[in-house]
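Two proteins, back to back. First:
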Amino acid sequence: MSCAPDSVPKKTESPPAKRRKTDEIPSSSHNSRAVGEMAQNGSVLRDSGDIDEGLYSRQLYVLGHDAMRRMASSDVLICGMRGLGVEIAKNIILSGVKSVTVYDTGVCELADLSSQFFLSEASLGKNRASACLSSLVELNTYVTVSAYDGPLTEEYLARFQVVVLTDTALEEQLRISAFTHAKNISLIVADTRGLFGQIFCDFGESFRVVDTNGEQPVSTMIASISKDKEAVVTCLEETRHGFEDGDYVAFTEVQGMTEINSSAPMKVKVLGPYTFSVGDTTSFGDYVRGGVATQVKMPKDLKFKPLKEALEVPEFLISDFSKMDRPPQLHLGFQALQMFQQKHGHLPGPWNKADAAELLTLAKERNGTTTTKLNELDEKLLSTLSYVSAGSLSPMQAVIGGIAAQELMKACSGKFMPIQQWFYFDALECLPHGGEVSEADAKAMINTRYGSQAMVFGAEVQKKLGSQKYFLVGAGAIGCEHLKNFAMMGLGAGDGNIYITDMDIIERSNLNRQFLFRPWNVGKLKSRTAAAAVKAMNPKVRIVAHENRVGPETESIYNDDFFEALDGVTNALDNVDARIYMDRRCVYYRKPLLESGTLGTKGNVQVVIPHLTESYSSSQDPPEKSIPICTLKNFPNAIEHTLQWARDEFEGVFKQNADNAMQYLKDPRFMEKTMKLPGNQPLEVLESVKQVLVDERPQSFADCIAWARLRFQDQYNNQIRQLLFNFPKDQVTSSGAPFWSGPKRCPHHLEFDPKDPLHMDYIVAAANLRAAMYGLQGSTNLEEITNVLASVKVPKFEPRSGIRIAVTEAEAQMEQAATDTDRLSTIQQDLPSPATLGSQVKLCPLDFEKDDDTNFHMDFIVAASNLRAANYDIPPADRHRSKLIAGKIIPAIATTTALVSGLVCLELYKLVQGHNKLELYKNGFVNLALPFFGFSEPIPAPKQKYYDHEFTLWDRFEVKGEMKLKEFLEYFKEKHGLEITMLSQGVCMLYSFFMASNKRKERLEQLMSEVVRNVSQKPIEPHVKALVFELCCNDDQGEDVEVPYVRYLLPPR
């Protein structure tokens, strides 16, 4: 959840208007319907052959253009439209394949409503595929979606590149598998049975994976390459190379040993963190200097077994390393379920002991005939499989459906490593205390929409779910998935409630993964739209939508009364600050918190439980590595450096400078505040104000063009020439080494050429941004702009002696700290007074917006960065990659979001039931690209101690006010044996042992609330029931001790 823009970006047009298309998949005499919209043959490709980056931008950063194009030519068949089938269909339609056909011959039953979110009570008795078709069509106007309920003949199956089977009998699976394997059609079999899930993949005899992990290729700068049969490459300045054994690298910019630059990719053998070998270089020249080694992604060919063979000789992908013995057991158990269903025409009854005993007999029978016999069957596990197999849970469908849809995308695109070949997953920790439910309780709600869920947990758990009051923070991608799962689970659908807040509005780029939103919702509030969408899925769900940011400014809304009434909080946020804030609120109010996040194919889940676990804030990722100032200003060596430089240029020139000028005009104390800034900042600020208001203020668009031309000259010509004047190309260091070597790339200046498209891109973008900043009318008329450029007089530049250029980070910091007092005084005198300028100046600081292609923001960033890259011979970046880096975009894909939400909601089942054993909960990390699944027990809350009192972050002192400060100090001395040496509230120091005696004496006689008001100089808001104090204390031996914080209860006001 991020800050909502003030208005809807200009470019929010929807894909082409709806039109019916019935000739995409030829019809037969059976019921076959095709509904959808498409730009080109029902694919994500527009008529021009380009991918709609406005819609698919976040997914493109996960998959790339090539993989998306391969997906755009893929026709997919998904069989079975119960909960799992519709989850897979939803995810794959959002992803942008060419067409999806949904197949089902069954009719909608009440039990389907537990997890099939596109069916309703109005669908009962209708064909499942037909009933949910219109909802599926709305998900993506570029994908042809059709429904079919005829026979799955070989002729019909041959039309598809991928076939997915859910809710399909084993006999039918084997028949279809034999055909698809022979015809090189990819097959995925997926099923859920209560708290158990299964996936099988067969992508044929020869399947090529073009990129096994999706990570950006690693590169490293080189210090030396030996001339050997097994040449050793050493990295520059103790920089870790990041390669692994078996990687391949290509070399560029190597001097001396130039032959290696044109060699085929060479295989890496890691020798250490800073060295690796690459094979024979004895026939090459001697290495002199320089060079970059860059990882090359090599394709990998895989062979899959058909289903019949894989059943007998299975390969398993482990889903949970604490359950490594389960996949073979479940492999047998799922086959036994198929046998039971074939024999009786239905699955075992919920928590029916006779059916479970029969399933065990069938499992033993199958174990006796298989080629990979198990020595011992886990009878308890297989009995539980029988007990819950008739159940259908939305979170389980989300988990298995997210994984299966990603496998489907791998089959279409060749991107990422597929599952080989069996995957089993269970979440038995979700079962009620004792691990069992009575058969009567399991069947008590069989005639309700929650019947399939109650079959697993029983009616009592369903009642608890309905009474929950939960706060969902964020209605973006994860938030939409959570809401869907909450609605299907019946969370808050009794006498409970779901509260959701998000202040964002819906943008077009959201539609690819925030599946509750449609093109006609663009510009509307996310929270209200999402709430209305899930109410349509389950009219009984009680939901209240807010549009508030969570933070100190909304604590009058989300106050003590609000939090104390909650059962828990679920975060669906996209920034760390808001996560930390909500985590602290949950710790204070002692409420469980479900935390999660995604990054492309990676996802994580953390459960925070009062008095049991650490909190989200207890451990954090290390901060991002910042780029040194001197590297940005003078010595870039990677496109990331030039893009950050361009982004800084945008923020400084079009945002910060205008902000400073506006403050100068409006704030009478601006000069006073500015002069208090440290180092050289006062001079920099006042210089920028003078430039904006006086020296460089344009009167027309022609002035903006002239400004852009002179800026080009200064940035890409004059400054580079000055740099080379200070440090010529042949400069050597004090040790005799070339100055321009290693990470320092020797630049060259650019001469402006109006015929060069990149040069003109810069001029057009910079001039239009300048015009927008001053409220002037811009233009993209190249003829007009070129004519103005021809008349611009560019001053002659000669490099000067005595100009200092920082070479090291320390020098750059010193440069920032120094100040020119004479120059500062002159500017103060030269600046016209705000009253003199009056209303002459219209200024509009520009807030960077990466997703609006009409505002010139990204045009400027791309051009400015690539021109600087040209200065330093750095390979340029296209607009797509530039937007990712400069816009700090988080890659996202619907499959990971669905999976992560499913995992969160499995933890929610445990919280609702009050599970109080740490080992029952699971923190999770997944990477669908590899694929990898890692689950672990949450970290317990660390214990601390003062005297004999143990405490954790969940503990505190509860003190009932009102009392004077001296009474407060005495209370802790007498009751707890603690001498308070310092006392603070927020950022305010209320008391300390080193405080001036007159001030201390005065405060000791004041009430605690009075001290807070006086020191903070703010009133205590009416909604505040308690104050939080932090203590520094000594024990009776005079030693510092860690103690909990204090919750000081105020008397009623």
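And the second protein:
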Amino acid sequence: MKHLDNLNSKQKEAALHIDGPLLIIAGAGAGKTKTITHRIVNLIKNGIAPEKILAVTFTNKAAKEMRERILAEIEKNTPIKDMSRVTLDTGEKMPFVSTFHSLGVYIIKENARALGLTKYFTILDDGDTTSLIKEIIKEIGLDPKQYEPRKIKNIISREKGKFTKLSIYTEKANDPSTSVGSSYLGKIVSQVWTLYEKRKNKENSLDFDDLLLKATTLLKEREDIRKIYQERWQYIHIDEYQDTNEVQYKMTQLLAENHKNICVVGDTDQCLIKGTKVRMADGRNVPIEKIKKGDMILSNFGGGKLSPSKVTNTRIHSIKNDYLIKITTGKNRKIISTKDHIHFAGYKMGKAPQTFLNYLMYKKNWGYRIGTTSTYTNGKKKVTLGFIQRSNQEHADATWVVGTYKTVQDARLNEYLLSLKYQIPTLPFIPRKGGSASGYVHDKEKLKKIFDSFDTKQSGIKLLSDLGFDQEYPHHIPQSNSTSRLNINITLCADKRGNNTVHTISFFCNNKNIKNKMASIGFTMRKSKTGSKSYRYETIRSSYKELLEMAKKISANIQNTLVVLRARLGGDKESAKDHNNLPQIPAGNIMCGMSLFAEDGYDTVKKIERIKIQNEEVYDLDIERTHNFIANGIVTHNCIYSWRGANLKNILSFEKDYKDTKIVLLEQNYRSTQNILEAANEIIKKNKYRPDKNLFTKNKNGAKIGFYEALDEGDEAEFVATKILEIMDRSGGENILERTLGRSGDDGQRKFSAENFRGESENILSSASDIAILYRANFQSRVLEEAMLKYNVPYQVLGVKFFERKEIKDTLAYLRASLNRESLSDIKRIINFPTRGIGKATIAKIFAGEINSLLIKTRLKIENFYNTLEEIKIKIESEKCSDVIKFTVKKSGIEDELKNGTEEDMERLENIKELVSLALKYDNLKKSGGVEKLLEDASLASDQDSIMLNEEKKEKVNAVKLMTVHASKGLEFKYVFITGLEDGLFPHQKSGENTGEDAEEERRLFYVALTRAKEKLFLSYANFRTIFGSRQINTPSEFLSDIPIDLLEKEGEEDRVKTIYI
């Protein structure tokens, strides 16, 4: 199968799957788009008609990229006559590739009458929607400043995303027993939403959310229409399935319910095997596969107190060609789970047997070391767990037990073998006291030099990976309240209050700035105790999820925090200081000698086995409030609730809906070097509560990440520009600075010639398009552009919303109003642009149906305006799209208005000319089809779409790309600069208080930015930055401190080429 030769074994496994549901579990850069593309090509090669295939993505850029990849692969492997004509728009038999919203538009347009719409309905953009809601708020006598239009719009959008109809919301608003009905705002939203829908119906318009809601409602309620699309698309692919909301999930389910040939991207699993006995509230043991939602089971409410609790969710899942973990205890209990299933387990004083342990210890800025100790220390006043004592003595940040042995000789032997195999030192992090003063183990500098001589970070991670450990779950994390590491401690079932349980969160620090920062985000800290210099924050909640959200918020705002998850479920308390806690760790990290919570107290792990399986059904439960249940006599964690993702239940429901799901795991990253991936993994793991899988790659470690500390934004931009010239210089031969800035003449002056640059551009720019500059906010591009111009670096700004520019919106509004006279938002926009002397009072009378009360002169102006719209409509129905725009701009008076205006107006006219150029691609569509498609694409345009404007031209733009991080999703470049890494800018501080979700989204965005780079990454921040005319002093972004220092190299003045000005 030559068309699959470039795939690895896992990608090929997914691509070869033809019939039945397929779940692809993939991380960033693991090649999921490539896999889906090749799967589609393989379907066609196996006789599946191309038009029977549907692929849905979340962005227009991703859809375009996938469409082009499919065309390229088909052209390569299945030649088609005249490939230049094969596009979605020409009606050729090709797979339908689109975004969810484009898919919604397609279904609505084909069934407009069934929805009470005309063919030429208008799609309202975000600004139009907000303005309309603001008008309605005023109409009902409320103040838009008190009832913010955008907030009400967001509530309506959220409800539509949950597949809530207006009628259902109105019922809730009229019922005081509901949360909506008991809220005054809920009643206001209901009133505004009702009038909003009436206005849209009158105007024959839809908002962005309607595109999904209306299409999905149609599929749900009209079986005849649903069957048409089920037969049309028999093979369905959904990218980024974890990001689907309720409506998108329902749309997907309705389309796939007949053939069930659906391929989606998902997430990992944490479950127990079929046959595991669950203790019910009445004392019976029932197999986990027979447990139903609503059943009452026995759960640990804390302190060993067992009480009934309700099952709120169940899950079944099939895993293939993997291994399970079998745990056998000293009391001969056995439990088998997936390696990721979370258990409560840890070494406990007085419970663990005295053996000898190998441990792997990690210390920030040092790396990893290996050592040996006994379970309990000898010769101390107080007996302690050996590896914990060593960890505390050396101020380590994390420790894992990596081997258990009966004799010290066996433990020492394995210590040396591991040290030699993985090249990890056995020396201490802290110099030994006493002994020879000249010994290297007594000298901190010599010890540090030894550790710096080995890449122990990579070796330590490899050792943990070889053992099957998840590095995110150490066996011991020392307590700390210093700024180098701050623990956020969350304890499940910390105490039982009456018939319920409560959970706790605690956070300690000894830094007043951190105390004040905590107060600014809503967490008041107090003195740990009288006279103490440290502070603490502690509280309880009945909702465990709420504590996790609180921890997210703290982590997002306070640097160097680490969330430590434990459970207080033990019952036989032996001392006042024994809190009977055990850590929460995955089955794959459990070691012999650890304690587990059992229904009768504690039990000790006696044996760990890996069991290879071919095909096994696994199950999980979600338990109300306590999140634990008794499985084969052992208290274990449920894992359903902790899945990450925008709408986790959609992934959970996937395997319920499609019983024979095949699962393929893609973890290998093909985009970035190991150093870049390691930095990305360090960043994303702070989104704690279901850590991202650790991406790996076979690519080399690659160059270190360049880091530049700039004086201000101008200095930062200069660094970026000159570094880019260096990069291009490596592939261009002679020094680019001399070519671009000119050579020195006899008088010592620079002789700059643009022709020098242009004439040699073919050589110079061979790598320009391989470089991207990313920033968090659009305003950052200005100073970067100035530096590009100064150094004559060719550049292209992407991510600017071309279709959001006023002149473009005005032109498109004329087109929409010509097709849909009921589109009041468009009429309002253009009826007095260019100026016709039609004021607000006149417009109000027009919309109130009082035209006859107006002066004849005014009525004539209005008549002329509507005559113009009629002429444009005639042109739309008879002329090419590009010619229609030319006519519209001239006939409406926009051209005359702009060409006689300011320099800025001339730039706007140039933008309209660019719109005409863009419209050329729609000229091959018949009659009004070109304009309709242009209007549709404009309504659905994303941040990335301005990149298309130049891509549509035959000539490829060979230039450095400048764009926001948002716009970079789905793209990749050899060299990436991420600028403006300052707190408040990236992570971005919104007006008001950032939520935990906002902070986590910022971290995810930085992760996206990092993984855009394939070979070399540069990070920079400015100590001073001028924003809105004010010069601000900045602190470095918290993200920078999360990247291991050994991955960074400082870019200094000595590396720059600024001497050209001396």
